[in-house]
Design a protein that fits this description.
Elements: H1 6-10, E1 17-21, H2 25-34, E2 38-42, E3 56-60, H3 65-80, E4 86-87, E5 92-95, E6 98-101, H4 104-115, E7 121-122, H5 123-134, H6 139-153, E8 158-163, E9 167-172
Parallel strand pairs: 1-2, 2-3
Antiparallel strand pairs: 4-5, 5-6, 7-9, 8-9
Helix pairs in contact: 4-5, 4-6
């Protein structure tokens, strides 16, 4: 049965990141936060991790070409249905292949919405973030900022939904 050499294995794909477990655990955490699909190659009889979401899988080394290709194909298919936005420290919001720049205020408000993509972020938490930069912030100031953010999100295929006086959630608008 043919096997991948280490060089072949780790350069075989670009959209699915291949990491050695447990050696590259720090990089793994970064990829998890960014929502990048990842295949962990478990080495030396180590105990594999429990995958944190559907964009992560593992395979034990040594690995055959067929098994490797099947795992990568499965991750690609699952990742296509699980795109998540990524907000970087430079103020760029990325979703799929598109991106928009956002202001520092918008970045602070978007951070919890991106981190909890698809779940409710309470209004009081967003007002507190807005107040941290200005001293005090009103409900109207939050509403105005959310309106501006919504305009920026539309070209990405994202939207912010309002949960009556409770908070907001960021989701796909496609």
């Amino acid at each position: 049965m043919p096997r991948y050499s280490e060089g072949q294995l780790f350069s075989a794909t670009q959209d699915v990141r291949v990491l050695r477990w447990p050696v590259e655990v720090q990089e793994l955490e970064q990829l998890r936060r960014r929502g990048i699909p990842r295949l962990l190659v478990v080495e030396n009889g180590d105990t594999p991790p429990v995958p944190s979401d559907s964009r992560e899988d593992w395979i034990r080394a040594p690995v055959s070409r067929a098994d490797f290709a099947a795992r990568v194909a499965a991750l690609r298919a699952r990742a296509g249905t699980h795109r998540v936005p990524v907000l970087d420290q430079d103020g760029l919001l990325r979703y799929g292949s598109r991106m928009v720049p956002v202001s520092p205020t918008q970045t602070s408000l978007l951070q919890p919405l991106v981190e909890r993509y698809g779940t409710l972020v309470p209004r009081h938490e967003l007002i507190a973030l807005l107040s941290a930069g200005r001293g005090t912030a009103s409900q109207n100031a939050l509403d105005l900022n959310i309106m501006r953010i919504r305009r920026k999100l539309a070209p990405l295929g994202l939207r912010i939904r309002t949960a009556n006086a409770r908070g907001y959630l960021l989701e796909s608008g496609e």
